[in-house]
């Protein structure tokens, strides 16, 4: 099954990154070894494309990465954009008004910007990213949602992040999205909802990237840890779940490796792909 893998695609948070949001030296070396063996490496994440520049540089990724849960597929310099799908602003405005009226925190994401409704723990990933990216001059803008929502009308919005307090609140948001929009709604971690344009998911992103590279889906290996990774597990020829993954993802995986704080991706690459 593994002898003809030509492309490895890895989720970011909870998978490629450890709990400190770092890429280990062992993993960097593993990706170099994959490249030396003719196996391409990329990332598929819910994060925005502007944040992929840092990780592409650190891992020497030359091919496009998949961002915003599949809504944006482009390279490090935004010169080779394979796919981009933005959200209808009229519907986005309705969602923002609903969230604001119900005192639910959210963020509006474009390709390189994040607009938040306030400050809190939900900004952690963005703040930690900027600390790491500053030395590479790759920091991203962290802004705040304007009082007049039409101020975002001219932005290419690829995703909304919704920070819920409990399951009941999340269910109400999901119901609103289902009834009032044609957007998708998925969860990328506990108490965090991703809302984006309909027809977009990680699985479709993996398929589009593989097609662009002339690689069959059965030659693709994917790594992930959460519900939004299920669609790409259903597409790829080889799927590897992290030890810290949700049970639903483990149930559809071909292999289960160690967790993201115990070099889970490296261990699987070495054992399954590099045969060490």
UniProtKB/TrEMBL annotation:
Gene3D superfamilies: 3.30.1240.10, HAD superfamily/HAD-like. GO terms for molecular function: magnesium ion binding; phosphatase activity. GO terms for cellular component: cytosol. InterPro entries: Cof, HAD-like_sf, HAD-SF_hydro_IIB, HAD_sf. This is Cof subfamily of IIB subfamily of haloacid dehalogenase superfamily/HAD-superfamily hydrolase, subfamily IIB.
């Amino acid at each position: 099954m593994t002898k003809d893998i030509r492309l490895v695609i890895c989720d970011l948070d909870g998978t490629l990154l450890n709990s400190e949001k770092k890429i280990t030296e062992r993993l960097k070396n593993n990706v170099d070894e994959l490249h030396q063996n003719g196996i391409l490496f990329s990332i598929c994440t819910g994060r925005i494309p502007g944040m992929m520049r840092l990780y592409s540089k650190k891992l020497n990724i030359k091919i496009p990465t998949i961002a915003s849960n599949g809504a944006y597929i482009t390279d490090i310099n935004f010169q080779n954009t394979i796919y981009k799908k933005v959200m209808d602003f009229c519907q986005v405005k309705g969602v923002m008004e609903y969230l604001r009226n119900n005192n639910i925190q959210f963020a509006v994401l474009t390709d390189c910007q994040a607009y938040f409704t306030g400050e809190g723990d939900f900004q952690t990933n963005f703040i930690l990213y900027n600390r790491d990216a500053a030395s590479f001059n790759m920091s991203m803008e962290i802004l705040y949602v304007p009082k007049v929502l039409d101020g975002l009308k001219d932005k290419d919005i690829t995703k909304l992040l919704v920070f819920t307090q409990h399951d009941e609140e999340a269910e109400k948001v999901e119901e609103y999205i289902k009834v009032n929009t044609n957007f998708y709604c998925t969860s990328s971690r506990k108490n965090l909802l991703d809302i984006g344009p309909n027809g977009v998911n990680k699985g479709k992103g993996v398929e589009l990237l593989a097609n662009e590279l002339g690689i069959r889906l059965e030659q693709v290996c994917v790594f992930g840890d959460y519900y939004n990774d299920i669609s790409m597990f259903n597409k790829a020829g080889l799927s590897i779940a992290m030890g810290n993954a949700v049970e639903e993802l483990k149930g559809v995986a071909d292999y289960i490796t160690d967790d993201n704080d115990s070099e889970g991706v490296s261990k699987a690459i070495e054992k399954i792909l590099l045969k060490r």
